[in-house]
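Hello again,

I reread your note about wanting to compare the complex against the isolated chains. To keep things tidy I'm splitting this into two emails, and this first one only covers the full assembly. Below are the input lines as submitted, including protein chains and any nucleic acid or small-molecule components. They are followed by the predicted structure of everything together. The single-chain runs will come separately.
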Amino acid sequence: MTLTAILLVAAALIGIGLYGTLSQQSFVMLMMGLELMLNGVLLAAVGFWSLAAGGVPTGQLLAIVTMAVMAVEMSVGFALITAVYRNRQADMTESLGTMKH
Amino acid sequence: MSVVDDMAFWIFALTAIVSGWRVFCTDSMVRASFLLLASFIAVGLIMLLLGAPYLGIATIFMMGVEMMVMALFMVMYMMNPAGLNPMVMVHQHRFSIGAGIAAFVGLAAVMLVTDFADNPVASDARVVTDLGKELLGDSMLIFETAGVTLLATMVASVILSSRSGRFGPADEGSVPPPLEPGGQPAGRLPEEGGGHGHHHH
Amino acid sequence: MTPIVLTMTWVAFLLGMAWYIAVLDGLWAAAREGRQPRAPLANPLYRCATILRQQSNLTEAPDLLNWRLAPALYAGLAGTGVALVPFSSASVLADLEVGIVWWGAVEALTVVVVFLHGWSANSQLGLIGAYRYVAIGLPVMLISMFVLIAAALPAESLAVPKIIESQHELWNVIRQPLGLPLFLLLGLSLSFRGPFNYADSADLADGTASEISGAARLVWEFARLAMLVATAAMAATVFLGGYLGPVLPGPLWLLLKTAVVLVLLVALSHLFARISPSRMLTLIWIVLMPLAFIDLVWAGLVAL
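Full-complex prediction:
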């Protein structure tokens, strides 16, 4: 369990998450992609904290902040989905085309 | 690092990656949410191996709740609620695969050419106490900012998702999207000025 | 205690207490109907045998993996919950630095598992039960977490043994009087009993369990009892001083306190009627949640 191995796993999670974020049509699935990317970020942060930074407390703080970001992303994301659904009765990114020209 | 720890790490790592990938392959939205939860639990367990008990268990705890809520929203808003019909809902698929691979390769390359410090956390470090002292000590401003941000998020979420707005009801005149581009709206159409006057609420 | 003795104590505690709840339930039902209880002590075992002899059921296109796994996972979560409880000052199966957080994870995953159980059977009643349960289970879980954080305050630690140590002079039930009643509601909610039985209630023909029989049903019913045992043991530990007590040895004190809490829980589950989910939600968010906040502020002021 070296730092390289952990970062490799984190990079894979970020890569898959990016794929999901870009490819999914459903807003909720898109958010799952974002969550997966943040999952990778969380793992990388804790990996650095544990194996390269000698356990400085601020490393753990970074992970806590990442979790807060996740919570904000979820909450605002679902609120937006609800707003879109009220307006378009669909949970599809394609249903939002009014800003296109 | 013992052999058992190493094996456990690779098992958790594989679980995290494979279930993370399966999230975007499954037909069922509920399965997708819980596969993502499996990925998070595996990462939480890796954190335990890395000597971060609070963060690891808090991740499992938080993600359990988040993914439960995710599954509910999935079922609520999807056209294919239980996810029992096969379906593919993707766009710009090739580009996305490319971007995902590029991100992975790029990050991996940066990581492989960088020389990271080798400074593991001491085995007798009181990490949970440290974290608590940091959160409510030197970094209190950051922690409190996160708290206030979460409060602002709650207010914003309620405003965004409420039905009544400044410009009338949010769902006024909304119709379902067509099944084909440019077609008729899907589903039942609202009755046009029906003479019955029955309103079931 | 050596690890083997400890593990055996843990198993015996789970099984024994689950049997005890089943006996209490049987006695209560007999008393309510005004009849003499028939073989009250052996009755739970007869029921086990009856369930095991049933044919196991299969619905149309279930999510078989999750459906089969859910009862086992539920029982496993109850087991890990009990593992957090110290039997005496030196004997605890899972001596975690962050035991309270782990208990929170057990609660959160329980909600997930119960939802999975109802959803994966691919039947309407199960899904309705699962949906109702999530709506009620999540806020009740939040309440219990606030209450537990309050209990961790005087101990200045998230470890369960430390929380017991902090109760040498004064039990938390007196120091934070709101804590225990709110936590008992969690017990009813986690094992969906009485007023909090939104998952497996009679109006849904057993809800999430409506489609299971045979071994799966036995595990599910046992898991419900085991989860009640886990919450009661946790309540006895966090609010009633756990193994602390004069004269008698520690494990016996824990046993006694858990038994008393279980009587309370069984009484609550039989005495109170269930209200409609929407009214229960209002009650939880408008009344109980602020009470949990008051408990937390109270604990903070006392700790100052």
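For quick reference: Chain A is about 75% helix and 0% strand.

B.
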